[in-house]
Design a protein that fits this description.
Length: 192
C-alpha cells in the first residue's frame, strides 16, 4: 500500500480546486486562490477548466497552462512543498468542479463570478459542492457609493474609535454604526 500523498509525515496537504474559465478575469481568480494557498505550508492546487465541447482538451490544457504558469511562478519563488496539477474535463462546470472537489477531498474551491450568467453558475456550484467555496467577484465601482473623505479621515485619526465624521454621525444622521474598542493580543494575552 502506497502512502497517501496528502500526508507528508506530520504535514497535511491543503487541497484546493480552482475553477478557471480562461476569460480575461481568470487571473483575478487565480491570484485569490494563490493568496489562500500561501496561508498553508503544503498546498496542493488543482486548476480546472471545463470543456463545453467547443475545443480540443489539449488546446484548453495549453491555454490553462499559459494562464496559471506565470502567476504560480510568482507565488512559489520560495515555496518548496507546493504542488499543482492542471485538469481539463468535459461536461457542465458546476458538476465537474463539485465532482473534482469531492474526488480529491478538497478543503476549498475557488471560483469566479464574472459576466452575465456567472451569478447563476456560482450559485449552482456552491449549492452542488460539499466543500467550502470562495466566490471571487469584481470590486464594486467606488463611484457607485463614494466614501466621504471626512469619514475616512475620522477613522484614521481615531484609529477606528469613531467611524463617521460630524456630518454623518449624531442626531439626524443617515448612518448608524456601533464599534467596540480595538482588541489587541500581546504576549499571548487578550487586552481590551
Amino acid at each position: 500500500m502506497s502512502p497517501n500523498p496528502r500526508y507528508l509525515g506530520a504535514l497535511v496537504r491543503y487541497r484546493m480546486v480552482i475553477g478557471v474559465d480562461l476569460s480575461e478575469y481568470s487571473d483575478i481568480v487565480i491570484e485569490h486562490a494563490l493568496d489562500q494557498a500561501a496561508r498553508h505550508r503544503t498546498p496542493e492546487l488543482h486548476f480546472l477548466t471545463v470543456n463545453q465541447g467547443k475545443r480540443a482538451n489539449a488546446d484548453l490544457k495549453q491555454l490553462l497552462w499559459e494562464r496559471v504558469s506565470p502567476l504560480l511562478e510568482t507565488f512559489t519563488k520560495d515555496a518548496v512543498e507546493w504542488r499543482a496539477r492542471l485538469h481539463v474535463r468535459k461536461g457542465k462546470a458546476e458538476e465537474e468542479i463539485a465532482a473534482l472537489a469531492g474526488e480529491l477531498g478538497a478543503d476549498l474551491i475557488v471560483i469566479g463570478q464574472f459576466g452575465r450568467h456567472a451569478h447563476k453558475l456560482a450559485s449552482r456550484i456552491v449549492a452542488g459542492a460539499h466543500t467550502p467555496t470562495l466566490v471571487v467577484g469584481m470590486p464594486n465601482d467606488l463611484q457607485a457609493s463614494p466614501m466621504c473623505p471626512m469619514c475616512a479621515a475620522t477613522r484614521d485619526e481615531t484609529q477606528g474609535d469613531r467611524w463617521f465624521c460630524g456630518a454623518h454621525s449624531g442626531q439626524g444622521a443617515r448612518l448608524e454604526h456601533d464599534v467596540t474598542p480595538m482588541t489587541t493580543w500581546t504576549a499571548g494575552g487578550l487586552m481590551w
